[in-house]
TrEMBL record:
Transmembrane spans: 533-555
The protein's required cofactors: FAD
Entry's family note: Belongs to the FMO family.
Record's keyword terms, sorted: FAD, Flavoprotein, Membrane, Monooxygenase, Oxidoreductase, Transmembrane, Transmembrane helix
Gene3D superfamilies: FAD/NAD(P)-binding domain (3.50.50.60)
The organism's taxonomic lineage, starting at the top: Eukaryota, Viridiplantae, Streptophyta, Embryophyta, Tracheophyta
Name of the top EC class for this enzyme: oxidoreductase
Superkingdom field: Eukaryota
Name of the featured protein: Flavin-containing monooxygenase
This protein's record includes keyword Oxidoreductase: yes
UniProt source species: Nelumbo nucifera (Sacred lotus)
GO molecular function: flavin adenine dinucleotide binding; indole-3-pyruvate monooxygenase activity; monooxygenase activity; N,N-dimethylaniline monooxygenase activity; NADP binding
Amino acid sequence: MEEVTVVIIGAGPSGLATSVCLNNLSIPNVILEREDCHSSLWKKRSYDCLKLHLGKEFSFLPYMPHPSTTPTFMTKNSFIQYMDEYVSHFNLCPRYCRTVESAFYDKASGQWNVVAKNKVSNEDEVYLAMFLVVATGENSQGYIPEFPGLDSFRGSFIHSSQYKSGREYVGKDVLVVGSGNSGMEIAFNLAYFGAKTSIVVQSPVHVLSREMVYLGMNLLKFLPMFFVDNLVTMLSKLQYGDLSRYGIVRPKKGPFHLKQTTGRSPVLDVGTMDLIVNKDIKVFPRISRIEGTNVTFENDKVWKFDDIIFATGFKTTIKDWLEVDGDLLNDNGMPKTPFPNQWKGKNGLYFAGFSSRGLAGVSMDAENIAEDINMAFGQIKLHHGGLEAFSSFNAVRLQRAASISAFASPATLEFFGLFSVTTQIPSNAFAAPALVALIPAFAEPVTSRDAFAGKGDGDNNGDAWCWSLQQSHHRFSSDGAPRGGFLDASDVIVYAAHAGCSRIHGSEDGDDDGEGAPPLPATSRDSFTDTDLGSLLSGIVVVTPLFVIFSLVLVPATITHRFSSDGVPRGGFLEASDVIVYVLVTEVLVWDGRDYEWEFGLREAAHAGCSRIHG
Ligand SMILES: NC(=O)C1=CN([C@@H]2O[C@H](COP(=O)(O)OP(=O)(O)OC[C@H]3O[C@@H](n4cnc5c(N)ncnc54)[C@H](OP(=O)(O)O)[C@@H]3O)[C@@H](O)[C@H]2O)C=CC1
Ligand SMILES: O=C(O)C(=O)Cc1c[nH]c2ccccc12
C-alpha cells in the first residue's frame, strides 16, 4: 500500500500534462498506465497515415509550445516525437503495465482507494490518494455496435484502432462502417492502396477541408460562431457541391456549433470526397444484416465483402473500474457535467481530457485540475507554513490565452472555455477582447491566496480588478456555483493569519495545535499599496479607457449576476472569496484613480468571510 497525494490514471497527453502542471506546483503525483508506454493510442492504436487535424497552435501541451520549425499540421510520428520529448524534458516516470481494476472513495478516511494489477509482477498494488485524476481517454476502447448476423461473417473484421494501412487489403472488397474522421480517412487509405472500398454513412455529416477548419478556428477569434459556421459551410458547398446524391447530407446546425454542443467533429476531407464522386469509393446506407460474406443494407442492396473495418467510434473504460454513483457518466462513459465544468467531480475526483476539444481542451483540463488541487491542497500545505508560487503556472495559462484568443470574440473564448466570464455576461462583446488583451499585461493573481501573497505586479493599476474579475469567472462556473465546490476558507485564513484575526476556528492558524499563524511573505500586503510613477502613468494611458468599459459593462453585470441588491451573493455566501470579490468589485467601482484602500477592503472581506462561514 502506498499513500500519494494525487493518483493519475492514464499516461496519454491528458495524464502527462496534468502531471507536469502538478509537478510545477510541487504537488506529489503518480501516473498509472496499463500499457508499457505512454501515449499508447498514438503509438499502438492509430493508423500510419494519421495527421493532426488542427494546427500546431491548437495542439500543444502546457509549458511546451511547438517551435516555429514544426509544420502547421503535424504527422502522427512528429506528434509522438513531441510526446517523447515532453516526457523526457519534464522527467515524467509513469508506472507502466499497471491496469487499474477498481477505484473508490472511502468516506471514512476521505481518501481514494485505487487497486492496480502490476502486469509484470502479477501482483495487486494499492494506492491511497487524496485526489484521483481520471485521464484514461475519450478513445480508450474501440466500440463495435451489435449487427444482426455479425457472428456469421466469414471474412475478417477489425476495429479502426487496429487498422494500420491499406497495404494488407490490395484487391480486396472492404467495407468501412462509420463515417467519422477515422472511417473517411481509412476508406481513402484503402482505396489509395487499391482495395475495392465501400463506406457506410448513416447520418448527416459536415465535410470540410483542413484549411477551412483552420480558417474557421482563426476567424472565431474575431467573429461570432454563427457567422463562421455560415462562411465555412458556404466554402464547403463551393468546394464539394451537393454531396447528397452520393449519400452524404449536411446537418442543419453549423459545424462549429455542433462541435461545441455535441462534441461531434466535422469530417476533415483528406481526398475521400473526390474518390466518392469518382465512384472509387461506394457509399451505402445503414446495415440491416450480415449473412456469411453478404451484407444487406437498408436500401435492400446486398454486397459481398472480404473484410469489414468498424470505424464506429470509441467508449471510455471508466465505468469498468470507477465505483461512483450512477449519475456521473453518460452511456458512452463520458462525464455528464457539461463543458466547461466537465473536468471536476466530487471528493477530489477529476476528469482530464474529456472535453472533446482536442489537445487544446486537454491542456485546459490539466491546468484547471492542477490549480483546483492546489487550492484544495493549499489548505493542507498552509499548516506547514508554505505558500506555493503560482506565477509560472499562470504564465502558461496566459500564454495559451494569448495565443488562442488575443482579441478573441466571446465565441472563441466560450469554445475553449478560456474565460467563462463570457457565459456569465452576455453583453460583453466589447469587454471580452479588452479583458483578454489586458490580462496578459497585468494579471498574475488567480486565486485570492496569490493576491494576498503579493503575486501581482504590485502596481495598483491592474492587479486588483484583474484579480477580482478573474475571481469571478475563474472561481465560479457559469451558473454562479463555485468551481471548487468545497468551502474554501483558506483565503480567509491566509489573510486572517496575517492580520492577526483569531476568529477562524478560535485560533490563529486555523487549527488547534497552538502553533500560531504561519509566517507570511514580507511582500504580503505592501505590494498592493506600493505605487510608482511609471506604472501609474501606464495605468492612466492604457487602462483608463478600457477600464471605463469594464466599469460600465462588465463589473455591474458581474455584480448584478452574482450579488443581489443587498450585496449578498445569490444563493448565499458560499465561500470567503464571494465576500472578497464583492468588496473588491464595489471598491473598484468607487475607485478614485489613486488608491484602493486595500487594507480596508481585505480586512472587511476577511471578517465578513470569517463570520459568514464560521458563524
Ligand atoms: N486526424 C485526426 O485528427 C483524426 C481525429 N479523429 C477524431 O477522433 C475521434 C474519434 O473518431 P472516430 O473514430 O471517427 O469515431 P466517431 O465517434 O467520430 O465516429 C463514429 C462513426 O461511426 C458511426 N456509427 C456508429 N455506430 C454505427 C452503426 N451501428 N452503423 C453505422 N455507423 C455507425 C457514427 O455514426 P453516427 O454519427 O450516426 O453515430 C460515426 O459516423 C473524433 O473526435 C475524431 O474527429 C479521428 C481520426 C483522425
Ligand atoms: O479531435 C477531434 O475531434 C478533431 O477532429 C479535431 C478537432 C478538435 N476540435 C475541433 C473543432 C473543429 C474541428 C475539428 C476539431
